[in-house]
Every structure is written in structure tokens, then in C-alpha cells.
Amino acid sequence: xxxxxDRMLDDQSGTEGQLLEKMxxxxxxxxxxxxxxxxxxxxxxxxKERFSGWTGARSAFRAPYGFTTEHLSDVAYxxxxxxxxxxxxxxxxxxxxxxxxxxxxxxxxxxxVADRSARLVAMGIAATALYIDPGLKDTHVVAADxxxxxxxxxxxxxxxxxxxxxxxxxxxNRVQL
Length: 177
Fold this sequence. Notes:
Strand order of the largest sheet: 1-2
Largest sheet: 2 strands, parallel
Helix content: 55-70%
Strand content: under 5%
Shape: elongated
Number of helices: 8
Distance between the termini: 25 Å
């Protein structure tokens, strides 16, 4: 199921298609977050004002791919009081001011985008393992690499959690990452 932001990304990417890649790849996750922030910053009568001033002339949120998956990881790693590290990151990205509520919402968006990616990866791995070995009688080792597996906090654990939900504990123990 694609979101409005997935469709926007696909339309604007210059490479239509490869939809799954755009929902799971580290190359695109930061852009999905950026599109969501820009959309939520748009004033609507029925919407509470959020992310005010985040898309100004010098903001990374104004430029396509200005908010990267590395930034997404930085926000996820932030355990500082008041998300002050995220606040400093935002200032470096050209956002002059942010509220704690906005920083928390940004972190929530980042986590949702990354968790969805991990769950989609888990589904792909599970489907492939079941295709190869329908009863999961053998152990299968899946080599995983990339910026998300190496750098996003908890990404591999989220993929493994997804595998347990799809395959059950016994099946997930037969698929090693």
C-alpha cells in the first residue's frame, strides 16, 4: 500500500517504478520524511500549525533530498533532554527554530518511515525464504548490508521482529540475517 508521499516521491524522482525500493531504500527514506514535513507545514484551516518556518529559503527541507537518511538516523539516535541534538541538527539544516512538540513529531515520522521500511524488508525476506523452502526445514542465511542495516538504530532488530511476526519463532529462527 502506497501513501500519498510514496506517490509524490515516485512522481518527482525521475524514475517511475521501483516502488518497493523507494519504500525501503536508505536513498529515499529521508526524502519521504522531508515530503511529509513539507506537507504538514502547509497551513490548512483544519490542521494545527506545525513545522512553521521549516521550509524557508535556506532550509534543507525546501530542497529535494535535503533531509537525508543520515539525518533520519541522527534524529532516531537523539536521546538528549528535550531532543536538543535534533534541535541543533535542525538549525544546521536551516530551520531557525523548532518546538519540542515539533521535534517529537519529526522523530515519530522518522521512526514510522524506518519501521515501515524494515517491515517491508522482512516481508520480502520471508516470502523468498518460503518460496525456496515452503516448510522452512533448512536454515537460510541472508546477507544484509547498506546504510540502514549498518547505521539506523534498531533497524535489524525491527526486521527480525517482522520475521517473527510473519514466520513465527520457529520459522524466524531458520532465517538468519
